[in-house]
Amino acid sequence: MSGARTTVRSTERGASREAVTIHFAGFNRAWAAWIGDRLERRGVRVVFLRWDSPADVPLVDLLRDLKLAEGRILILVSEWYFQLGPRTHEEWNAALREVVAPDPSRFVAVSVTAAPVPSATAVLAPVNLTNMGAEEAERRLLDRLDLPYDASARQPEDFGRGPRFPASMPEVWGGVPRRNTRFTGRESLLNDAYHLLQGAEPGAGVVTFYGMSGVGKTQMAAEYVYRFGSEYDVVWWVNAEKRVTYRRLLAELAPKLGLQTGQEYGERLRAVRDSLRRGDPYGRWLLILDGADEPDQIWDLVPTGPGHVIITSRNPEWTEHNSKLLEVPVYARDESVAFIRRRAPRLTEVEADQLADALEDLPLLLDQTAGWLNDSDLSVRQYIALLDGGIDGDVVKVSADFPLAFQTAWSILLNKLRETVPESVDLLRLCTFFAPGFIPVRLLREMSSDELPEQLAGLLNDPLLWNKAINQLRQYSVVRLESHEAAGDEGTASGESLYLHRMVHQIVHKDMPDADRKEFIEVVRQALAAADPRRPTDPDLWPGYAEIVPHLKYADVLQTQDPGVQRLVFNCLRYMYFSGEYNSGIKLGERAMAAWRQLLGPVHPRIWELTYHYTNLLRAVGDYTRTEALSRAASEHLKEERGPQDLEHLRAAGGLAADLRGLARYDEALELSRWVLVAYRDLLGEQDSRSLNSLNNLAVSLRLLGRYQEALEHDRQTMEARRQLLRARHPWTLGSEISYAIDLRLLGRYTEAESIQARNVRENRIVMGEDNPQTLRAEYNLALCHYRGGNRDEAGRILSRVLERGERVLGETDPVTLIFASAQSCFTREHGDVDQARELSESVGARYEVMLAEGHPFIAGARSNQALILRNVGERDHAHVLVEQALADMTTAVGESHPWTLGCALNATALRTLVGDTEGAAGLSKDTVTRAIESLGRTHPLTLSARIAYAADLRGLRDRRQAEKVEQEALSDLEATLGKQHVHTISARSRHRPFWDFEPQTT
Hints:
alpha/beta
C-alpha cells in the first residue's frame, strides 16, 4: 500500500465491479487496510491512494487531480489528513468548498478521529467509525457507501486472515512505545520496509533500520508498528542494547503466548524461540529489537519463523546476519519544515526552513529545539545567531557523526531547563555518570538519604519534585521513560529507568561544574555499590550484575578507595568469570590493576585479591604464562608476609596450581594441589566450600595425569558434599557432575556417564543458560558420551552446535572452543567431509602452537589427530612422520604410561603397518598392551583397542595362532564390557583397525 495507485485483487472475478478509491494519510494506514478488506470481501474493487500534499502545489489542484481517481472516492477523515503539507484549516475550507461541494456524489467519507477538523469537512458528510466495535463500524461503512449489510454473512474465522479492526489490539502486545503524534515523513521508508517483510521467505523476514544517532530509528519502528500492526497477532518490543536485557524481555513473552514453562528465563527463552519458529500458537508475529548496535552479541537470538523482525541499530553489519538494511537519513528539508511547524506552530514556513538548515535536519535536535523555542520569546534569527556565535567559550567535543551545531544548541536548552526547573539539570547530570542509553534511576531512589548531599537530597526524596524534574526533561524530549505503556500513569512518573541519548549524554557530561562532577559521581558510585547483589556465583542474580557492569566505567569506580565500591568491582569480575564474559572481565581487570597499583600501591592487600580474580579470567582464555607469573608473585609475597597457612596465600597457591596445569606441569600441579587441600582442611574442615574447591582442583590434576579412577573418587566426594552443602542446582554442584561424568566416560563407563550427563545438561541450561561455558562443556561431554556409546547421529548434531556456539560466545581461540573444534574434527574425519576435518584440525594445531610452548602435550595430541586425517587422504608417509613425532613428544611430556601416550602409540602402530614396518608395529603394539593393562586395566576401552591392534599386527607377522588367541580374548572382554552390539565390538569383530582420538581436557 504505497503512494502509487494499487488495485487490490478480490477473491471474486467478474467482468465489472464497483470500484472505490480509498484516500488516506499514511498515519491512518491501518484503517485503510481494514476498510479495503471489508469492501473486497463484498466484491468491491479497491484502489488505495495514500495522500501526499506537496507544499508547493496548491491544494485546489491536488483535489481536482484526485477526482481523476477510479470510482467513488472514500476519504478517511482525520487530523493527519488535513495536517499534511502542512495546510491551515482556512486553506482546506476554501478548497473543499471549491472542488467537493459542486460534485458531492464523487466523494464519501468516514471519520476516524475525534479531533477538530476543518468546518467545511461537513460537505463530505463523514460517518464516524470511532468508539465502537468492528461490526457496527462495518455496518456504518457499508451504509455510507450504499452497500447492503448482511450480519449473517460475517464469518468469524475470516477475520484471522485479514487486517484486524484498528481499534482492536493484537492478541499479544508488549513494550511498544506510545505513538508519536508528531511523527513526520518517512513514507517511502515505511513502505519499503513493509514490502521487504511481506515479500521475504519464511524465516528471512528481518529488516534493520540503521543510521546515525538522532535520526529517529526508534520512532520509525514505532510508527511501523502502529501503521501495520493490525496485520499481526503478536507485537513485542524489546530493548536489545544489552544481551542480558534482550534475553530477559524476550523470555517474558512466554506467558503471553500461553507457553507452559518454569520460572527460569533461560527455559522461557527457549520456549519462546521455538514457539515463534513453529508459528504456534501465532504465525503472524512482529518482534522489534530496539537499539541493537552490537550484532555479534544477539544475532544468534533473533527468532526465525513465519513472522517478521524489525531491528533499529547504528550498525550496518546486520546485513551479515540475514537482515535487509534500510538506511534512515536525516529529514529531507520538506519533512523538517513540516515537523518543525507541527512542533512549533508559531513559526512561519520560512523560519522553519531557516531553523532546519541551522540544525542540519537532524530529527532529535529539531524535536528538542523546536519544542522549547515555541514557548520562548527568542526569535529564530536570534537563536541561529547564538548557534553561529556559540554561547560557551569551551567548545564541546562530540563524535564525528554529530552536527557541530548540537553543542551550542544544547547549551541553550540547558539554560532554559536551569531557569525553569533547576533540579532537572541536576538529575540530567547525575544520569551522565551512568552509561548512555537506559539509566536505572531507581538505584538513586533506593539509596539511603543519609548518603546524599544536600543538593540532591530534596530531588531524590521528594516525589513531587522528582516527577516535576522528569516531566520537564520529557517535555523537551531530553529523556524518555523505559516503561512506555505505563508512561502516562501517575505512578510511573518516578521512572524505573530513563533513556538518555548518547549525544545528550556527552554534551551534558562535558558541560558540568567541577564541584557537581565530584559530588554527583560519588552518589552514582554509592548507588551502584548499594545495588550489588553480593552473590556473583548465583545465576539468578546475574541480571543484576549485567545491569550494573556497563555503568562502572562511567562512574569511574576504579578511582575511589571506598571499600563498598571496591567490593562491587571484585564481585563484577567474579560474575564475568562465572557467566563466561571473559574478555570484558579481562579489560576491567587490566584497568583495575593499573589504577589500583597507582592509587593503593603495588603490594596493597586489594592488589592480591584483584590478582586472584584477574588471573581467573586470563586463565580462562589460555594465557597461562602470564597468569603463572602473576600467581607466583602473589603467592610468594603473601607466603613471606603472612605465612604459608594464610587463607589469601592458599588461594593464590591454588591459582598457581591451575597455571601449572595449563602449562602442562602436571606433577608440580598435583603436588601443590595436594598441599593446598591439606592446608584448607586443617584450617577450615572438610566441608568448607574452599576445601571442596581444592578437592575438585586436585581431581583435575589427577585427570590430566591419566589417573582417571582416582579423579573419579575425588569428584564423587566433591559432588556429594556440594549437593549437601550448597544445593543440587548450584553451579558448582552442576560442575562437579560434569567432572564426574567425564571421569566415568574416560573409564569406559559410557552408559553411566550418559545417564548423568543428559540430566546435567538439562539442569545447566535452566540454571546457567544455553550459552554459558559450563553448559557448553556439559553438552560437549554428552556428545562424546553418545559418540562412545554408538549414537553417532546425535553426537554429530550436538558437536556441531556446541562448536558454533563456542566460537560465537567464547571466540575461536578460546581453550574450550579448541577442545570442541578438536572433537568436531575427529568426528568429521570419520563421518563427514575429510577436507573439512583437515582444515579444522590444522587450525586447532596452529592455534595450540601459538598459545602453548613447544612440547606441550596438547600440541602432540593435535598432531596425532592430524596424522589420522593424513592417513585417510592417502598421505601415508607424511602421516607416519607426524604420528611418530607426536608419540615422541607425548612420551617426553607426560611419560610412556600415560593414556595419551598409549593412544599416540596405538595410532603409530597403524601407520607403521601402512608404511610396511610390520615388525616395528607389532613390537610397539605389544609394549602398548602391557603398559595399558598396568595403568588402565585389561578391560579399559583403550586397552581393548590396543589388544585388537596387537592381534592385527600378529597376523601381519603370520603368527596366526597367537593372533587368534589375543583377538578372541579381546573380543570376549569387549562383549562383556561394552556389549555384543556396541559399535566398538562390531568394528573389532569385522577386523577394522582401531584408532585413538586425542581429547584435550580443561585445566
